[in-house]
Design a protein that fits this description.
Number of strands: 0
Number of domains: 1
Largest sheet: none
CATH class: Mainly Alpha
Radius of gyration: 14 Å
Protein name: Anti-sigma factor family protein
InterPro entries: Anti_sigma_zinc_sf, Znf_put
Shape: globular
CATH topology: Arc Repressor Mutant, subunit A
Bound molecules: zinc ion
Domain Putative zinc-finger: 13-44
Keywords: Transcription, Transcription regulation
Oligomer: single chain
Structural class: mainly alpha
């Protein structure tokens, strides 16, 4: 992977804090930094998209347990085929 803006450390931070961001548990300042990073970093944006898709699907099902791997894979595949059509 090519580090964008020599910013590998930020990528680690984004991945580490993805759940906090998705659940709105971040401070405004952190959320801003988070959004700025994923707007500029394609690999983190992909990662955030998939996590968000899984979170949305789970919330829709009213489930608080972790997604079984099979469901997770299916959601990710749906996301991919949706992108191909778009
Ligand atoms: Zn990144």
């Amino acid at each position: 992977m090519t580090p964008s803006n020599g910013d590998e450390e930020s990528c680690c931070w984004v991945i580490d804090h993805l759940q906090e961001f998705l659940h709105g548990e971040m401070s405004e300042q952190e959320a801003d930094a988070f959004r700025r990073h994923i707007a500029a970093c394609e690999s983190c944006m992909d990662e955030a998209d998939m996590e968000a898709a899984v979170s949305r699907a789970l919330r829709r099902c009213n489930r608080t347990v972790a997604a079984p791997m099979q469901l997770r894979t299916r959601v990710v595949q749906m996301q991919v085929s949706y992108r191909w059509q778009a």
